[in-house]
Amino acid sequence: MYPQMRFGGRIECASVEKHRPRGDSPASGPLAAGCEASGRHRSRAALLFSGGVDAFASLIAHLDERPELVTLHGADIGLSDTEGWERVRSHTEQTARRYGLGSRFVHTNFRTFIDERALNALVRDSGEKYWYGFQSGIGIIGHYTPIAWAAGTELLYIASSVNAADNGSEPCASDLTIDGQVRFCGCRVIHDGYEFTRQDKVRRIVEYSRASGTAVNLRVCWISTGGGNCCRCEKCYRTMFELFAEGADPRDYGLRYTKRDISRSEIRLRTDRAFYDPYYWPGLRDCLFSNPAAVVPEGAAWLERCDLTRRPKTPRFVLYGLFRHIGRKLRRIAQRLGIR
Ligand SMILES: [Zn+2]
Questions:
Q1: For residue 161, how far is its CA from the centre of ligand 1 (angstroms)?
Q2: DSSP assignment letter at 48
Q3: CA of 299 to the centre of ligand 1 (A)
């Protein structure tokens, strides 16, 4: 994955201990500090559930196994974002209730007890940040280990973020070659949905929703505090356009955008560094403008003629980006000072 880096050192185990799964803890009451559960449902399978496209696609694919949903507080939602966590928790609980599944919640400081800035510097040669490129998959999976022992879970699904078509071109800590090799206490980890692209997953979600008449409420935003979808960041726009490409209205999937959000999509995306990632946008544009079933919303025609290979440097985009950067800094300071 990172041939340009040297991975030295050794891991030596002082002693090896065997733990058989206990499997006698129903999903009720706390198992340990930082972990809580709701619902009386017992299951041999579990799904790490963030509420996004990947997680929903895995949920739909494995509904017949009735996996319990496991959501981490401290991964994308900060531990201090109480309001955001309540919404995320409620979203998982609602989803679990809708499908008659159990749910578990883990509060974790695994992103803050490390010095992420120093680690980013340490792995700079990889071209990735520590969280995405090194920590995310196995870091998230590790939280389930004591639960698997207590609950006797045999299968833990973690939804794939990258897919087979990338052929290893997109390095990510959560990868089939890593997640899929993890075992503990009689529990196997399945890196799920690797064979599907993100657009495939959106299509399957839309097809499922239409066929079953079930509303699907996605939570995709990693920017907004409050646990909702801002409809103004790269991830929200990407998901909205993916839904448009399948002929669906994002409002029916939890992305309550306004006409203004769409009309401002060009300037917002052109000032977001993630937009220049050739990983998603060229394929998404092709799908949006070639699928006969797609609905191209008013104000999105710019995407068809946009050169996605070059970062635009026109003054208005640069200035707009600068103002957004200052705005974000001021909002963060206001949040820290408790000013709303
Ligand atoms: Zn967003």
A1: 17
A2: E
A3: 18
